[in-house]
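Repro:
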Amino acid sequence: MRNINSSGVRARAKRAMGVAAVAGAAGLSLAPAAFAAEMDAAADAPTEVSGVDIEAAVGSKPQSPKFTAPLVDTPRSITVIPQKVIDQTAATSLQDLLRTSPGITFGAGEGGQPLADRPFIRGQSSGNNIFVDNLRDTGGQIREVFALEQVEVVKGPDSAYNGRGSGGGSINLSTKKPRLETFVTGSARAGTDDYLRGAIDANYQLGATSAIRLNIMGTQGNTPGRPDVVDFERLGFLGALSYGLGTETRVTASYYHLESDDMPDYGVPLMTKVPGYPRTESGVLPVGRDAFYGLTARDFAKTSADIGTFFVEHDFNDRISIRNVFRYSETVNDYIVTNPGDGGAAQFVAGEWWMKRGTKSRWNETKTVANVTEVYGKFTTGGLEHSFATGFEVSREVNDNASYVIYTTAGSACPTGFTNNVTNAGVGDCTRVFAPNPNDPWTGLTPLGAVSTSRTRSGGVYAFDTISFGEKWLLNLGARYDEYGVTGITRSSTSAAGVITGQTASTPPKGNWDFFNYQVGLVYKPVTNASVYVSFGTSSTPPTLAGGDQNAVPGGTGGGSNGQAPTTVLDPEETESIEAGVKWSLFRDQLQLSGAVFQLKRKNAQIQVQAGVYEQAGEAEVTGVELGVSGNVTDKWQVFGGYTFQDSELVRGAYTNVNVGDPLANTPKHSFSMFSTYKVFDKLSLGGGAYYVSKSFGGNQGGAGGGANAIYAPDYWRFDAFAAYQINDRADLQLNVQNVGDKEYIARTNGVHHADYGAGRQAIVTLNVRY
């Protein structure tokens, strides 16, 4: 079942880095002679290079036609992170990049949640609300950024746009598309902690209306601040071919592949796992950032994603267009990870604290077929101008899920006097609490256990319209109706000495729901480049998604009933939000400012009222303020960032360890981020980033609240540095120093078993070239 070869990933990643580095340094062999001649002829013209000539981070808008007005006239909070910011911050993953957008945190993998991207937006787990080119990106994944043009973050309930969702918002990843030009860009990075990364982006115009674009990336390294064994290796590719560019009918076919081989890291234990030890205020055990409890002989995390997409777009005239997008994808998320707080309470034996290593594991294969058809454009009726989009979307998903049955036949021995020292059918697997050794010996068996299959079918129809009432007023309307159903089958298994001997079928749990969501917004424009708005929107979260795990089945542990009988299927949770704000575009659209106040209510939430019994009696609320800035203050000074205030609480429905009035998990009250650069001289730019996150409570985010709120991640400041020097018109050097002060901070905690440290200081040098 582990279908990703570790040595293969390593070899292919190194080859990809080599190709990109050679192309970046020598790139002439990749650039057609005719284009090189054009570049020579234009040598005196100004050329934008990644770190120096900083283009505005504004003017972009969400990629989807569903957004029927310019960004400044769209009545909701939307952040567009452009490719410039992706490149300048040296981001390598979605989690790296989204720290530039305040108000987004990431949850720890626990409570049945997959080891994958788990963003929280406005207090709601939004791992199921990640899209690629506006189609839902299913399956548990760790996502890369090498093939992205921009990232769009929509905050607040948006089921009118995207159907089922958590209510906090959504994230859309816009991939690079072919253009009617020829260029080759390359980057070669090297840094501390054995970091290497090579990437190449090549676009070739094949004819008057056709082009091809290729992106290749390979990277490897260690996690700064953690032991060297916490490493990663990734290889990525995106190829896209377009025909009919610049004409009334445009066709694009693309294929994306990403594979990774990482050492998973579940951080450090909590005080609750070491009874009798003096408690820290935050509840995180004070073992230090270099304590790693995993086992190199056993642990692994391997993922793969293969996504094929086919776009067709046609303009009937200059006011009406139609487009169809079809996608087939397969993803695999495969891991065994040591959970330091899941092996039972630590014991004080022979003058030392000892604990057993707990484990979490998953093998998850997801196959998805999806199609969306949209008609969009403009028309005038009754003296009113309409900008509209309407369409329908269908998808089918098949999720196979299993956990490994881990049998330790030989491992790190528990000391004499340690009780309950047997792990499954083998021997104890113990480690010193304050001096864990990741190279401890381990041998054993890891067969797959029971396999659960969920088959999801969904369909939705929607319509949006922005109506202009003269030059001052806009009315934004949107509505969507969805049908969503899941059928689950658990193939139970028996095992002897770690070998699967048979499987039997169980009764399939089923769930079918339909829901209607809408949004309405009123915009007033005091001047053409500014707007004042108020909006209201709703969202529906089917019970299979309420725990944040998109691969759950309707009943059973981890599913919509959270431990109830499979015959009991709960209703979708409902989220609604009201928001009022101001947007202002300055300096000929070179700088955008925004501010908003909002109140989000999550109703009908699942809570446990007694052992094994759940009811939809919970309600949570998040009230907040968001401020944003994006673009160029002057032709030399670029800024990108903002501030978010969130006051969250459980309003109704207390349950284990969570009381009415408690804040929600992974919802810090204050978060601030600012990345800024300044061109000191024509060839030199300096800058950096400042990031602040206040105290954030842990918890599984099951039900309306946040788990064990006695545990929290303390507040922290983190600072990054940036410098870029333009060597010539085609090349520049870039230096990034992440976490300049080497701040030791807790990035997140699940509040039950473990807490995760943020990355330590790392210096990265990048050579960027363009031909």
